[in-house]
Amino acid sequence: MTFERRTATEGVELREEGDTMTAIGYASVFNRLSQNLGGFVERVAPNTFAKTIQESDVRGLFNHDANLVLGRSKSGTLRMQEDEKGLRYEIDLPNTTLGRDLAALLQRGDVSGSSFGFQTISDNWGTTDDGYPLRTLTEVRLRDLGPVLFPAYEASEASLRSLAEDRSIDLQILVDAAERNDLRSVLDPQEEEDETEPSETHSVVKRSWGIR
């Protein structure tokens, strides 16, 4: 099963208590529409993380890099909870060069985003009010989360595979349509070509988002 990544730009705070420096942020915010992910948008439903934060041994990483370990839920140095806003996390930064450097970057405001890596357990597909394809994540298995330097808005073949199964459409057709930012024409072939383009919230992302 392929891992996906999503980013929240809520900001990351640094809390200092004695010798302990803790990074605090939101890896995901509920019910907020994502940027255009290549022909569709996405949101995360409440309780999406409820099971995984109880069962999964999640790593706290910087920039999703397994060589840049900040904490781990099994050891208690990474703590997660769902609240009304989203998935909140706290990572007690290690007293290492990485931990001290990241603390300095957080203090300066140079690092301000968070991200989570996951496998989809369940999702569903619908449309936004203006008819744009909408994926809603309802349960995931977390692999890692933590601060990131560059927010990433990436579609993945895994999300399109979910859509292919949901709509009984060949996966490669969806991949090709996503590359053209033209999923709607595949999902609704009767749609008029001159129909109003998606709002700025769903603004077109150039091919830099990539299918992987």
Q: What proportion of the residues is helical, as a percent range?
A: 10-25%
Shape descriptor: elongated
From the N-terminal CA to the C-terminal CA, the straight-line distance is: 13 Å
Question: What integer is the average pLDDT?
Answer: 84
**Low-pLDDT windows of residues:** 199-212
Count of individual helical segments: 5
Portion in beta strands: 35-45%
Radius of gyration: 18 Å
Structural class, judged by helices and strands?
Answer: alpha+beta
The number of E-state strands comes to 10
Oligomer: single chain
Largest sheet: 6 strands, mixed
Query: Order of helices and strands, N to C?
Result: EEEEHEEEEHEEHHH
Keywords:
212 residues; alpha+beta; six-stranded mixed beta sheet; four-stranded antiparallel beta sheet; 10 strands; disordered C terminus
How would you describe this structure to a colleague?
A hairpin with a 7-residue loop joins strand 5 (59-61) and strand 6. The model is unreliable at 199-212 (pLDDT under 50). With 212 residues, the protein is an alpha+beta fold. The chain has a domain at 4-37 and 44-153. The chain has helices at 52-55, 97-108, 157-167, 171-179, 183-187, and strands at residues 4-8, 12-17, 20-29, 41-44, 59-61, 69-72, 78-82, 86-92, 113-127, 133-148. The longest helix has 12 residues, at 97-108. The strands form two sheets. Strands 1, 4, 5, 6, 9 and 10 form a six-stranded mixed β-sheet that branches. A four-stranded antiparallel β-sheet has the order 2-3-8-7, with helices on one face.
